[in-house]
Write the structure tokens for this entry.
Amino acid sequence: MASAARSVSNAARALPALEPGTSRPAEAGSSRPRLDVVERRRAAARSVRRRVNLLRGLGVMFVVGALAVTAAAHTFVASDQQRIDALQNQLTQALAAQQDLQLARAELESPPRVLVIAERRLGMVSPESVTYLAPVDPGPSVSEAAASRAALAVAAAAQKAEQVEPAKSAKSDVLAGKTQTRTSLAGARSSGITPPTG
């Protein structure tokens, strides 16, 4: 390591001094290489550093954005969970109220309670003896009565039709006779024969 340091210091001594305002040593001959390679390396290193810093910045922004989206999603989930919990509590309260109402209804419909109300509030008493009535024939139902009326109406219409038929046939016979008489009278007049009167 010490030998490497010595060689570097010896090389530095061998280089000619730089003129003020120039970045290159004075050229003694054309065979000397240019010494501006260090600047190119520095520029390349700077551009690499810039790219790395840009990528780091983009990475940090991506991570921050992902964390913000995750936080927003957790906020929405938490608010929805609170809403669900509130609705679940309301449902539990409604079910408890329904059970209470069903129990109260069953108590109100109980036969002993109905009997107590009937005796105390309405003044009803239990009968000493029960008399059962014999069943009475209520007669035909409404539909049966309507059917019998319809049958009677059909029978009456059929009877009327039978009475009208002979009268129509007699009337048509009389009309046919009159028509024949008229035609014969018309024929007699046209031929000059006087018809018999009477």
In short: The chain has a mean pLDDT of 77. The chain has four helices and no strands. Residues 148-190 form one domain.
